Amino acid sequence: MKLPLKSALAGILLLLSAAGLIAQKSPSKFGEIDIKDLEMSYSPIDSSAGAETLLDFGLTTFDHNFDISLQHHVRIKIFNSTEFDRGDIKIPYGSKDHVSKLKASTYNLENGKMVESKLDKKNIFTEEVSEGVKQKRFSLPNVKVGSIIEYSYTVGYGSWGRLSNWYFQQSIPVRHSEYIVSLPEYFKYRQIMKGFVKLAAYETTSKNGTYGGSNFRMDVTRFVAKDVTPFKDEPYMTSRGDYISNVSFELASIYIPGQVDRNYLPASYFQMSKELAGKEFYGTDLVDNKFLKEEVAKVVKAGMTEMEKVQAIFEYVQDNIEYDGDDSESRLRQILNNKKANRTNTNRFTVAMLNEVGIESNIVWLSTRSHGRIHPVYPMQSNFNYTVACARVGEEDILLDASEKDIPFGVLPEKCINDKGLVISKNARWVSLTPKVGNQLFLTGSFEVDMDGIILGKIDISRGGYSAIDFRDDNEDAIDDYKTDFAENHATWIIDKHEVEGMEDVKSKVKESIEMEIEDYAEMAGDLLIFNPFLYSRMEENPFESKERLFPVNYGAPYNKTVSYRIQIPDGYVVDELPQPLAIGLPNKSGTFLYQIQQVGNSISLTSRFIINRTEFQAEEYGPLREFYAQVVAKQAESVVLKQQ
């Protein structure tokens, strides 16, 4: 007779626990503080850091009741007051889990001796964070500059589906990070490593045991990282989770000969897609919905092309289905009647309407930029966090998110531009999320400079693509606030007129017009007038300050900023000096910068084009990219010199 799953496993693990296969413990005992660490005044890993994690140790094991537990031991050195909040500890856990063996202390050096201040257990608080989530909260006593804080605890988890993630890298330096995972061979977990930190040690050991006359093996994997530099956000990154060094585990299967044989993860993404397409929610519910015919007939007119039908249905759903934030799996008829739905159901409704007019359409699963990249090997539903619609017109995929009100037809929100998406279909496939529009910014200006150094003129700004989408999103129903902030940020300007058009029509560009006067803009030096001809939207700093970069540079979408200014020369002055023209490019035509300035009659004409054609540059391409930006900053900082006749 086969034993129930938990009974079978509990028997095995009880035997293993009694056998004491491998002793795993923290490399340092609690309270075992080195006096040299108390005397240390800065981190040798990063002297600018306000704190350093001296020890971060974790041990994940199974106990005799077939529960997974995590033992965690942390020790941190405080170098300055900006890091005092590291003494405020929060330990989150599930409402069905439990925390035990919690202890914490602060250590200070007083008159050459170590003084320990222990946490009083009455100062440990249990809080409800959200539904199903609790946390233990406490503040360590007597934390000051030079302190070492230390705490340890055990969390017992009621589920074995996912082991605790372990992060080797933090926002402060880490001297020693060690994670040990101890698993019976019957459990197969997919181990996922991310990041760029090289491990100082990575080893798996094992020891045999027996149960019911059968031999088995206990596998113990140990990860160690040492002297880890802090993780710092860099410009143009996707999710921190794509880059910060960590290891995670996902339960793939349990196999006990004669007892249990169970798979938890699909063999591939395509298998996952086909299984989802076979279910009502993503499959049968989205086809053959006769009750939609009347509504579809109001939207789709005779003589429309397939592309026009797709656009008409998209705009109908976008205009008529209100976002309600309800996470329940609403029925399509309910959405039609109530005209409300969450993001996923809004796009399911779009797919159903498209299928009703005979246009092949499916749901697409994707991962947003903040959620991180889809793992290329391990097919897990947790890799995805967003749903859009996909209509197939001829050989072209039209990606749609009708839940977003401020995007035009055929354009995904910028947060969705993250490599590729999975088409949920019995004919599973990947679809590219490469954007069809970029960030487009066009500036034209007409100015005159007088002999007192005052600039008067007008700037017209046209925003298209994601530049327009982002501007609408940032300033929706608050354009007056935008104008106020603009005036405050340009305190030396006297703004005579400021208009913005195109905020309501997502199909149009956003156009902005500013008439202004800038006093003391040009510097007067004897008979010379000196000023920067790049009066507005100059790149003043290189966003890539670091000399080296470990991570790719990801723009999301291509970028094009074109500037065209004309500046009238005041009477009685002539051009004495103009910046030299410049035309540079990145390898493989991935970016260009053009700067051209010349005298045309009694005016100076300036044209600047800054274009990034690629959406991502690898770390090894960072050097040329950084230098490219440096030349842009330097060139746009150069001045025009006029001389009095």
What does this structure look like?
This protein is of the alpha+beta class and 645 residues long. Helix content is 17%, strand content 40%. It has an eight-stranded mixed sheet with strand order 5-4-8-2-1-10-13-12. An eight-stranded mixed sheet has the order 25-26-24-23-30-34-33-32. A five-stranded antiparallel sheet has the order 20-19-18-21-22. α5 packs antiparallel against α7. It starts with a helix and ends with a strand. Mean pLDDT is 91; it is low at 14-22.
What are the low-pLDDT stretches, counting only 5+ consecutive residues below 50? 14-22
Q: How large a portion of the residues is in β-strands, by DSSP E?
A: 35-45%
Overall 3D form: globular
Main beta sheet, described?
8 strands, mixed
Question: How many helices does DSSP assign?
Answer: 10
Secondary structural class:
alpha+beta
Count of β-strands: 36
Structure at a glance:
By secondary structure, this protein is α+β, with helices and mostly antiparallel strands. Helix content is 17%, strand content 40%.
What is this structure's SSE topology?
Layout lengths: L4 H15 L15 H5 L11 E12 L5 E11 L9 E7 L3 E13 L2 E6 L6 E6 L2 E7 L8 E10 L8 E2 L6 E11 L2 E8 L6 E11 L2 E15 L17 E11 L3 E4 L5 H9 L15 H7 L6 H15 L1 E2 L8 H7 L1 E2 L1 H14 L4 E6 L19 E8 L2 E5 L19 E5 L4 E4 L6 E11 L5 E11 H10 L3 H11 L3 E9 L8 E9 L4 E3 L2 E4 L21 E2 L4 E10 L4 E5 L4 E4 L5 E10 L2 E10 L3 E2 L4 H15 L3 E5 L1
Parallel strand pairs: 1-10, 16-17, 23-30
Antiparallel strand pairs: 1-2, 2-8, 3-7, 4-5, 4-8, 6-7, 9-14, 10-13, 11-14, 12-13, 14-15, 18-19, 18-21, 19-20, 21-22, 23-24, 24-26, 25-26, 27-28, 28-36, 29-35, 30-34, 31-36, 32-33, 33-34
